[in-house]
Amino acid sequence: MDFGEDTLKVGGLTLTGVSRGGIATSLHVPELGLLFDVGVPVVGQLKRSRILVTHGHQDHLGALPYLLSQRHLARQQPADVHVPAEIVDPLTRIFDAWAEIEDFRMQMHLHGTKPGDVVKVRNGLEAVALRSVHRVPSLAWVIRRSTRRLKEEFADRPGEELHTLRGEGVEVTEPHVEPVLCVTGDTQIELFDREPLVRQSRVLVHEVTSWDDRRDVEDTRAWGHTHVEEILERLERFEGEALVLVHRSARHSRAQAERVVAQRFPAAVRDKVHVFGN
Ligand SMILES: [Zn+2]
């Protein structure tokens, strides 16, 4: 079965993987060394030892046992798997059952995560968990990068002078933290409304499950999802570089979604908007 793997380069990141509503979601971002959700195996996933899970629906997590057993066969270290705290117990029971079936226990570091928790990814890179709004306990993930940048008062100084100042012990840089990526997982639009970090992320991977009236805003919300009309109303509040719309339901073709973007999204923001998932 072809799950519609796709690749997109935006905002200095490569997004590669699958994201189709109710079918499968697995997103791999090599620059950050992260995998978001494990609905289906995707290219490159075995290289990643940290997996950030948005929620426990099978189309987002069903391939985890298979991924872990593949890692074991490839003699890799146990992966760090960060999931909503509420699903640690049932997941542990599932892995107990697999251990019984296979007479072998797959190794992983399972981390229960609560909204507000911060996970260190590597030096200068951390993942913040936010509560998203879905029918089961769910998290959105924001990846923050910390760097140092030149203080504004030194912005026009020539390099030589900065060098001298540094030599004199003057601190010419200051810490700078940028949310480089947000992956919403499945959510209603309240996450976007409530969380400034989501709106500020350089690349925002937001779910848009419904793209026409076959399931209207009310129905879409009842299933814990976002309708394209709700994104359209809020476009001006997005402060980042790229808005990547994922998790399109099987009712809508890619061509239909791209037509909606071309015809309905204002020209001023259209270039920022990308439809993801084949
Ligand atoms: Zn879901």
What is the secondary structure topology, with strand pairs?
Elements: E1 6-10, E2 13-21, E3 24-29, E4 34-36, E5 50-52, H1 58-61, H2 64-73, E6 79-84, H3 88-102, E7 108-113, E8 118-122, E9 125-131, E10 139-150, H4 159-167, E11 173-183, H5 190-194, H6 196-200, E12 203-207, H7 217-222, H8 228-232, E13 242-246, E14 248-249, H9 254-264, H10 267-270, E15 273-275
The chain binds zinc ion.
Output the helix-strand order: EEEEEHHEHEEEEHEHHEHHEEHHE
Mean pLDDT over the residues: 94
Radius of gyration: 20 Å
Distance between the termini: 13 Å
Write down the CATH topology: Metallo-beta-lactamase, Chain A
Mind telling me the CATH class? Alpha Beta
Work out the number of β strands: 15
Major beta sheet summary: 8 strands, mixed
Low-confidence stretches: none
CATH arch. level architecture: 4-Layer Sandwich
How much of the sequence lies in strands comes to 25-35%
- Helix content bin: 25-40%
Structural class: alpha/beta
CATH homolog superfamily = Ribonuclease Z/Hydroxyacylglutathione hydrolase-like
Q: What ligands can be seen in this structure? A: zinc ion
Helix count equals: 10
Shape, per Cα inertia axes: globular
- In the residues, how many domains can be counted? 1
